[in-house]
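The instructor's notes for this session suggest beginning with a concrete chain rather than abstract definitions. Hand out the sequence below and ask the class to guess, before any prediction is shown, which regions might be ordered.
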Amino acid sequence: MPNHNPADNPGIANFAAFSAMIMMVSSIIRIGACLYLPAIPIIGETLNISNADMGFTITIYFAVFSIFSLVSGPCSDAFGRRLLIITGIIVFIIGSIVCGIANAFPTLLTGRIVQAVGASMIPGTSRAMVRDAGNDVQVVSLLGWLGVLGGIFLVGAPILGGVITEHFGWRSNFWFLLGFGMVILTITILRLQETLVPEKRFKLAILPILKSYSEMLTSAEFILSLLPIIFCFIFQGAYLAAAPFIFIRDFQLSPTQFGLSNIVIVLAITAGRYISIAAIKHYSDLIGYRIGGGIILLAGLAFAMIFFFKVVGLIPLFIALALFCIGFGTLSPIGMKSSITVFREKSGMAAAMQGCLLLGSVAIGSAMISALMNNFPNLPTIYIFSALIIAVSLSTFISAVAGSKRLV
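After discussion, reveal the predicted structure:
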């Protein structure tokens, strides 16, 4: 079983420094997923790519990410966490180069696929490192901060991407990722410490791996504690696919203004993170989970006001988004911690299965929005998005109530 006392892990005596390193490593994937969002309409126009195909570049990214996460988990348990993260950054950099030189949809799509393969090696491995090195409170806190970090880059990356696109062209987004990736790679090689010592590693064997994954998929504790988070990630995928069209095309915001508008989301996720920590310290995981589910139910009601009563505008939309993201921020660290803890002795594979399910959910959300936009081309995107999130909110609430009884 992995050692969970950070003081006993080589190089992890200072958990704060370790946390900063994990957040820095995770940042390359998070900024890579969001940086080019403001450029999506421009890339489509420049390379003569339809809105549906541009949306597919998001869907395929997260679909490939999801599938290859299943490979990265066992590899991290067998060969160590550090090697997988370094390899992932290198592959991600190669994918960014391919995207940067793309002159047609197939090349752009290929670059996004390569990026996704590299990206798949990082988040699950990072979460496994957190589980290796921290106690329960530290794990929930750091996973919560990783959620906040994702929100920060959800704001900062589109702002940066908008500025880069407006002043240097859309290709510069991918050249920025190349340079940023090289910096992160250098620091990772020099500073990131291994958390899984050789004697605690597993041999890479296909049948035991498949058996372990089967056990996870049939474990009520693993699946039910993660199910509300799965629905939250469907929301994330839907938002990533719909937001550029809602804010830039429908509300006529500039790419930079679009990025700034996401400040609401990062503040909401941060608030949810503090609610999660407070619930664990003063009450229980169960209470925190149910609070998060209740807040998301309120978000569903806010989106219902937009869809059914045509209460349309930036303020109603921000209120609905903020409520969902507060609930998201509350549920996410508790559910992620609990599902990995069920299979603590195989935390790398558990994190990989977790990543597969969550990133696959992002792909599903993105694909659903793209399909609905194709089928209802005359319906404003905000109504399409709101209708989907009403169903997602209700599903999240129901699953949070049920899943709270299975938390570990």
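Then share the key points. The domain at 15-193+205-406 is CATH 1.20.1250.20 (Growth Hormone; Chain: A;). Residues 1-11 have pLDDT under 50 and may be disordered.
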